[in-house]
Amino acid sequence: MKSYCSYPLIFLSLLGSLNYFCFVCGADPTDGFTQVPLTEANIKLQKPYDIPLSERYSFVNGTHKMWVYADDKPHDPKSATQPRTEIRITGLDYSSGVWQFEGYGFVPNGTSGATVAQIHGAAHGATTIILRIYDGNMRYYSGDLIATDMYDKWFRLNLIHDVDGGRVSVFINGEEKFSTHDQGPGDLYFKCGVYAAPRNISYYMESRWRGIKIYRK
Ligand SMILES: *[C@@H]1O[C@H](CO)[C@@H](O)[C@H](O)[C@H]1NC(C)=O
Ligand SMILES: *[C@@H]1O[C@H](CO)[C@@H](O)[C@H](O)[C@H]1NC(C)=O
Ligand SMILES: *[C@@H]1O[C@H](CO)[C@@H](O)[C@H](O)[C@H]1NC(C)=O
């Protein structure tokens, strides 16, 4: 009978070492951050100006689905920018501190040359970071490779902007994949959806997003 007593002890010590292992290797990108309340009022849609939202956006079962065509109009008749259907997080613009965007994204095979998430605003240029999908790979603008084989699967994106430290980091499925300098402070805000790149774009572009959260430190 006495030997049975050791089983829970072995189990507990195993659990303890697992916890230790997770603590050492599995830090979550949101550790040390505080979630900022986000409501529908913080979600503003941008879409081709001459088309009703329902023709480029749906919100079903918690998933925002956004799509756009290469020959769509810009979001504003006065703008000369590429077509987009994007969520612009509004009411949570920042200019200092450490901020984080989290969301679960999905890009269908075929969508290429599309910015699927970005931090808008900078001291130099219009954006701090642009995450684009080209042929299933995620790139920093059209340059550095961040992640591969992204089509047709949900991925968790965590985008951390340390404005005071001047750095921005990209986590895919909890793993840090990329980090670089930012472009200086400005009127900063997060976006996700589809925004056509200047070149190498597919005719149809789509991304889906769910579980969008904003955190700060
Ligand atoms: C709704 O989303 C949940 C996951 O959050 C999923 O399990 C379920 O199958 C979805 N339902 C439909 C009708 O898509
Ligand atoms: C995407 O679709 C193309 C054409 O149907 C196919 O050749 C390719 O293997 C697909 N890629 C992935 C990652 O499924
Ligand atoms: C864009 O397409 C050109 C050729 O059409 C190619 O050389 C270039 O590598 C492509 N760029 C990206 C980012 O895929």
UniProtKB/TrEMBL annotation:
Keyword presence, Transferase: no
One Pfam family linked to the record: Alginate_lyase2
Residues covered by the Alginate lyase domain: 42-215
Superkingdom classification of source: Eukaryota
Signal is among the record's keywords: yes
Keywords, in A-Z order: Signal
Signal sequence interval, chain numbering: 1-26
InterPro entries the record matches: Alginate_lyase_2, ConA-like_dom_sf
PANTHER family (UniProt xref): ALGINATE LYASE, BINDING PROTEIN, PUTATIVE, EXPRESSED-RELATED
Protein name, as recorded: Alginate lyase 2 domain-containing protein
